[in-house]
Amino acid sequence: MNFSSIGYLIREGFKNIWSNRIMSLASIGVLISCLVLTGSAIMLSVNVSTIVESVGDSNVTTVYLEDDITELEAVYVGKSIEKVDNITQASFYPKDEAILAYKDVLGEEVFVNMSGDDNPLPHAYHVVMADLSQYDKTVEQLLKVEGVNSVSSRSDVAEKLTSLNTLVTMMSFWIILALAIISLFIISNTIRMTMFSHRFEISIMKSVGATNSFVRTPFVIEGVIIGLVSAGVSIGALALLYDAVFKAVQNILPLDYVPFSDVMWFIIIAFTAAGVIVGALGSLLSIRKYLKKEGNEILGW
Amino acid sequence: MIEFRNVSKVYSNGTHALDNVNLTVDKGEFVFIVGASGAGKSTFLKLIMHEESPTKGAIIVNGMHLEKLKRRKVPFLRRTMGIVFQDFRLIGKMTVYDNVAFAMRCIGKKTKTIKKRVPYILELVGLKDKAHNKPSELSGGEQQRVSLARALVNNPEMIIADEPTGNIDPEMSYEIIELLSEINKRGTTVLVVTHEHELVESFGKRVVRIEGGAVVNDTKDDDVMVAI
Fold first, then answer.
1. Is A52 exposed, middle or buried (CB count within 10 Å of its CB: 0-12, 13-18, 19+)?
2. Cα dist from A28 to A21, A24, A186, A245, whole Å
3. Angle at B170 between CA B169 and CA B174, to 5 degrees
4. ipTM, 2 dp
């Protein structure tokens, strides 16, 4: 195929869209809705997993020592704790430091009575585990260490967020799949209509010896253009929408949300690829049956 | 060149369209194929264009064995033949020029080549002045000449005209056959399918008569008989 042909086929693709503009517009609309929904699902999923990860990062577990352990004894216990498998770090957390956290809550007067020798808190170690999934086993071992009284339970929030993350990811996957199928169907229907209105030209093309790929190309280009336009509009719409939601949610529940710019390139590439693939595939699906026909069959005579 | 060897065609609905047809058309010949409707003329043409495959027998068209032709080779078979339809099959929204140029576009010819070739062909069929008219602004005879120009533009080895005079006035019919005859003189094989006996007789070319799916008469054989 030479440049004249490529130019011609691309022009034909654009002409197809224009001559079938109502349907093209409708399918662009549906595609945009699908892509924005897909994007929302992706953004929700990304945010949930980021929040889960940030909670996971602070996976500091507190190991409380027996009440009567002195600071000196605590150093020895600390050495034993460090030897436990899966513990990467153990830092001493003296009770004098721990009580400071309660200073504001208790009020100056009560605090004075609770500091020094009257401190009711035990000494503790903050430990970091290499692998959180080994949590239960590690805790079992820690409790065997002499001088260890108890271990703080794993953050419930982290656990719940992890399961939420799985749920959101699963749901996003199915939503995206369903929307992809809908988009494919819509595009292939639009192309089918263009093709139907061009069946006469197609029959002539075949009778003068156009190859199947030549007949196919303008329709594939039509599908790809619809896909690309939809992707472009969707990226913009998603950016604006996300920004607005981002600000609103930040006020209600201030967490470390992912800013759109962090995922912008991923979204641009993913949407563009999705638009091109869905557009091309949709048109290929509908043209297949036309290309199998010969002569008057194409015209339905 | 066309060669049919013991060709039979039975459609999936059980219709025996052609029955053991043997026929050879040499390069540069002008042949009329005549027969009543339903005799098998259309099937004959569809087999040549490879819109249908034979149930039995071998078909060779312009050096290609059609009974074992691969799907992706079909377009290249069709490029060796120009087809003229009874109903012209012109694209209404395109000008005469674009209709002819379309056939060149379809096989990937360069715009430069198209710009040179189309006016030449339009002049050949006497439609240079109508290049920028729409088909609907032309008479039946003129439309058929556009159709012929489109068939010729890719310089095929063979022109197949399916009832080319079916939709036009008798005088115009004569003109179209004259034009085909002119093209034939330049070395292109011409195959005209028609049921108009008078027209056929007045030209004195080879006539192949098909009836009930079989070749019942071929004037070429008569010549041989006379020669003997």
1. buried
2. 10, 6, 9, 24
3. 115
4. 0.89
Angle between the B111-124 and A3-19 helix axes, to the nearest 10 degrees? 80
pTM above 0.80, yes or no: no
Residue of A nearest to B78 (CA): A209
C-alpha A236/C-alpha A100 separation (Å) is: 49
| B21 strand-pairing partners | B7
If 0-12 CB within 10 Å is exposed, 13-18 middle and 19+ buried, where does residue B100 land?
A: buried
**All domains of chain B, ordered by start, with CATH?**
28-42+77-227 (3.40.50.300)
Which chain A residues are within 8 Å of B75, Cβ to Cβ? 206, 209-212
pLDDT (tens digit per residue) in B25-43: 999 999 999 988 888 888 9
**Residues 129-148 in B contacting A (C-alpha not used; CB under 8 Å):** none
Contacts A204 to B, Cβ<8 Å: 89, 91, 102-103, 106
What is the helix, strand, coil percentage profile of chain B, to 5?
40, 25, 30
Neighbouring-strand partners of residue B3: B24, B60
C-beta atoms of B75 and A211 within 8 A: yes
What CA–CA distance (Å, rounded) separates A23 from A26? 5
For A274, which DSSP code? H
Q: What is the pLDDT of residues B187-205, one digit of tens each?
A: 999 999 988 888 888 888 9
Domains of chain A, by residue range, sit at 3-55+158-299, 60-154
A60-154 CATH fold: Alpha-Beta Plaits (3.30.70)
Least Cα separation, residue A286 to chain B (angstroms): 19
